[in-house]
Specification:
Elements (H helix, E strand, L loop, with lengths): L4 E6 L13 H18 L4 H7 L1 E12 L8 E11 L3 E10 L5 E13 L5 E2 L4 H14 L18
Antiparallel strand pairs: 1-3, 2-5, 3-4, 4-5, 5-6
């Protein structure tokens, strides 16, 4: 487990397919739950959502399956902030079997900060959240994300 670990879970029996492997859809579930863990780490937790009526929406997701995950495995997920701006987080997740160095899968999320309520729309992050985002990026330092070089997600400017 590293300082970037935002989620840990055992593989549940109902997540296993007919080949004895983690069913592909549950990698996405694990990535989504890890994103919740990152939100908590950045202070975008339940209290923040209730107080501000703001949250993150996933607007794009890429998954890459790299190595097998089996029924007896336990998983941990590290989160990397690949890019950020005033309203968006580009997040890379490394899903790893506990005790193994190889990354089993990667997930890449584009997350958008949304103000909910009567007139929902995008909203800039408050200054304190941006400070926590920068602190998390600094924590990651030079730790590379394991994601492959496929079609890139990126923040479009303008």
């Amino acid at each position: 487990m590293s300082e970037l670990t935002v989620y840990k879970t055992a593989v549940l029996p109902e997540w296993i397919d007919y080949n004895g492997h983690l069913r592909d859809a549950y990698y996405v579930v694990i990535g989504s739950l890890a994103t919740d863990g990152l939100m908590d780490r950045l202070g975008l937790d339940e209290a923040y959502r209730r107080h501000t009526q703001c949250t993150l929406y996933s607007v794009e997701l890429h998954m890459h399956w790299l190595h097998e995950v089996k029924a007896a495995d336990h998983l941990e997920v590290d989160a990397h902030l690949l890019a950020t701006d005033a309203k968006r987080l580009h997040v890379g997740l490394d899903i790893r079997v506990v005790g193994q160095t190889l990354v089993a899968a990667t997930a890449e999320f584009m997350l958008l900060h949304i103000r909910q309520g009567d007139t929902p729309g995008t909203a800039p992050f408050p200054a304190d959240v941006l400070q926590r985002v920068e602190a998390y990026k600094a924590l990651a330092g030079n730790t590379p994300w394991a994601g492959p070089a496929s079609r890139a997600l990126m923040l479009k400017r303008g």
